[in-house]
Structures are given as C-alpha cells and as structure tokens.
Design goal:
The protein is mainly alpha-helical. It is 70% helix and 2% strand. The chain has a single domain, classed as Up-down Bundle (Four Helix Bundle (Hemerythrin (Met), subunit A)), CATH 1.20.120. It contains six helices and two strands.
Length: 223
C-alpha cells in the first residue's frame, strides 16, 4: 500500500510534530537511500504502466475480464514491492514516491472510468477525488512551512487495500447473471467500507497538518 517502499523507521522527529501514523514523527524521504534500480521500484513502475492499459481495456473494448486481471496484478505488485523493500533492504526515495503515486493513480483512474461506465454514482467519485485534491493542498502547505510529507496513516493503507480489491468485484457485479448477483453485495460493502476509511484517513491527515502549522506559529520559530 501507500509508502510501502519507505519504512517508518526512516523518519525524522520534528519539534511539535505529530505524525499521521500516530508515532509523533514526520516522514523524511531525504533520509532514505537514493536508489533507482531496485526490484521494488521496478514493480512500482510496472504498476504505473498498467494504469493506461487498464483504462483502455475498460473504456475501449470494455474487456472487463482483462481489466480485472490488471487490477489483480496491480494489487499483487502493491503488496510485493513493500514486502521486498523490507526483506531485501531496498527502500529508496524513489520507491517512497512511486508506491503511493501508483495507488492514487489506480484509485482515481478507476473511479473516473467507473463513473463513465455508470458502475458507481458520481457523488462517490466526487468525494474520493475531492479528498485527493484536499490532500494535494495539504502537501503544499507542508512544503511552504518546510515540512516533508507526513507518514501515511494505517487507515489510509487499509482503505487503499480494500478499494483495490473492491474495484474488481464491482466490475464483476456490473452485469447480469448469478455471479453478478452474488458478488454485488460484497463489492458494495467493501466499496462503502473502503471509501469511509479513505475519507477518514484524509481528514486525519488534514488535522495533523493543521496541528503542525498551529504548533509552529505558537512556537514562533521556523521548522
């Protein structure tokens, strides 16, 4: 899931900082090794390259079966790159950027494709994409105050995991027949659950950013 290529051990404590992961630290990617050619990074790149393929399969020939395969491969590589980064000691700055970027691209791309195909309602897409826009602004605020991105909250990791596995089920449920009827309740339960956690994690991230900025202003000194 998000930031799996950047272990929480590589974080720098900042005065007044309460990391989103609840550890009281702010993640500093600059402390990670400056590696490029690693196996985890390669898996993240493969996952990124799968985004346009997934969109084409879903919106072009509407080959939903193959689109599900791409999503399943993305989920598997998402788990594998974090596991390998930890076990092989191949955490890197690039990996800490690629991994969450791939997750967010898949989620946003899937939601846009789903709303164009009438698989999910527009309000759900607006809520989740709006969450990404708000977090983007929060990151700009952090940068303006000299802070690196905060550690990813475990709720955000769990939400991403749930959504990436709910999306293939939504595709399977988008049809007729007994399989769709059986899968639909599970798919929507996971989608609602994952979306709620995803939004909650976003709220917690913004709360942490506001807390950092207020603490800095109260201290009267730069970070």
């Amino acid at each position: 899931m998000t930031s799996s290529n950047g272990p929480s051990a590589d974080a720098s404590a900042r005065p007044g900082a309460g990391g989103v992961g609840g550890s009281g630290t702010v993640a500093d990617r600059n402390l990670l090794p400056d590696r490029v050619w690693t196996l985890p990074n390669g898996l993240s790149v493969v996952r990124l390259l799968g985004v346009p393929l997934f969109l084409w399969l879903l919106l072009g020939p509407e080959a939903d079966g193959w689109a599900v395969v791409v999503l399943m491969v993305a989920g598997a590589t998402d788990w594998a790159d974090g596991k390998l980064a930890r076990s092989l000691g191949q955490s890197s700055r690039l990996g800490a950027l690629l991994d969450p970027a791939a997750d967010r691209l898949y989620i946003v791309a899937t939601l846009i494709a789903f709303v164009l195909r009438d698989v999910v309602p527009l309000w759900l897409v607006a809520a989740l994409v709006g969450r990404e826009l708000v977090l983007g602004l929060a990151l700009l605020v952090l940068r303006a105050h000299g802070y690196p991105p905060l550690q990813v909250h475990y709720l955000g990791k769990a939400a991403t995991f749930i959504l990436l596995y709910a999306f293939p089920l939504l595709l399977l449920a988008d049809g007729d027949g007994p399989v769709a009827a059986v899968v639909a309740p599970v798919a929507w339960a996971l989608t609602v659950w994952g979306s709620a956690l995803y939004l909650l994690a976003g709220v917690l991230y913004v709360v942490q950013v506001v807390g950092l900025v207020r603490a800095e202003r109260a201290g009267g000194s730069p970070p």
